[in-house]
Amino acid sequence: MALDQSFVGRTYPPTDPYEVGREKIREFAEAVGDANPAYTDPEAAKALGYADVIAPPTFVFSITFKAAGQVVQDPQLGLDYSRVVHGDQKFAYRRPVRAGDRLTVTSTIEAVKSMAGNDILDIRGEVHDESGEHVVTAWTKLVARAAEPADSVDATDGKA
Amino acid sequence: MTAKIAYDDVEVGTELPTQSFPVKRATLVQYAGASGDFNPIHWNEKFAKEVGLPDVIAHGMFTMAEAIRVVTDWTGDPGAVVGYGVRFTKPVVVPNDDQGAVIEVTGKVGAKLDDNTVRVDLTVTSGGLKVLGMSRAVVRLA
């Protein structure tokens, strides 16, 4: 089903602040097997010039994707969420996310396309800290695959 | 910002140390918990096959997280990464055995840019297949 084109450019209200915790960063770093001390040792992070431990580059996705939920689950948009896969992902960092950050995400629909029966949705998430400073921008491309027998699935990361 | 690699010491073609990252079912369960992504295609074989996948697959974002380690290990300072993007082209299939899968990552400097930054082009494969496309990071060096 084709998505509602009038949604292009729509911006959703900022999310409630997400407070980044040291232990959550540690848990994430351990889950990806990354022993970089900047993620777990405040002294090592300070030696690099940061006020506290910093998060691995892709950590912020958990926050921006949750924020994008208000977009993909907007019933007026008409996205078939059960068939959604993650097409691509980009980040632009002003600075690394660090423990103690209280981050809000403002999501905007950048593009809505239909190609070969697939619905494609591009969402930009602008992440700001408590002082209003821009921290990182995340661009997420979601693809709702056309409903047909799955004989040649090249799905990547379904997010149903 | 204290990358341990100097801009003047690299050139287009400079290779980063290659790394291999093993991924087993337990890895995916752990990543699901840490990331909050509990999609059953990452832990439930029956469900994965019902939706047309060959088996349980790794989270795309897990693969993306592993690939950038080649860059952050090289720079020492993860905050040196100013941009990072990937396209998810093929799933990393993770069988339920002692072996699991392996994600292989190579990287090289693809371009020297302004402001002491370089573009690193990553090649990310599993089982000989490219699993990420257009996998690139922009990094600020010393």
From TrEMBL, chain A:
<protein>
    <recommendedName>
        <fullName>UPF0336 protein QF030_004994</fullName>
    </recommendedName>
</protein>
<dbReference type="InterPro" id="IPR016709">
    <property type="entry name" value="HadA-like"/>
</dbReference>
<dbReference type="InterPro" id="IPR029069">
    <property type="entry name" value="HotDog_dom_sf"/>
</dbReference>
<dbReference type="Pfam" id="PF13452">
    <property type="entry name" value="FAS1_DH_region"/>
</dbReference>
<dbReference type="InterPro" id="IPR050965">
    <property type="entry name" value="UPF0336/Enoyl-CoA_hydratase"/>
</dbReference>
<comment type="similarity">
    <text>Belongs to the UPF0336 family.</text>
</comment>
<feature type="domain" description="FAS1-like dehydratase">
    <location>
        <begin position="6"/>
        <end position="137"/>
    </location>
</feature>
<dbReference type="InterPro" id="IPR039569">
    <property type="entry name" value="FAS1-like_DH_region"/>
</dbReference>
UniProtKB/TrEMBL annotation, chain B:
<dbReference type="InterPro" id="IPR003965">
    <property type="entry name" value="Fatty_acid_synthase"/>
</dbReference>
<dbReference type="InterPro" id="IPR002539">
    <property type="entry name" value="MaoC-like_dom"/>
</dbReference>
<feature type="domain" description="MaoC-like">
    <location>
        <begin position="13"/>
        <end position="123"/>
    </location>
</feature>
<dbReference type="InterPro" id="IPR029069">
    <property type="entry name" value="HotDog_dom_sf"/>
</dbReference>
<comment type="similarity">
    <text>Belongs to the enoyl-CoA hydratase/isomerase family.</text>
</comment>
<dbReference type="Pfam" id="PF01575">
    <property type="entry name" value="MaoC_dehydratas"/>
</dbReference>
<protein>
    <submittedName>
        <fullName>Acyl dehydratase</fullName>
    </submittedName>
</protein>
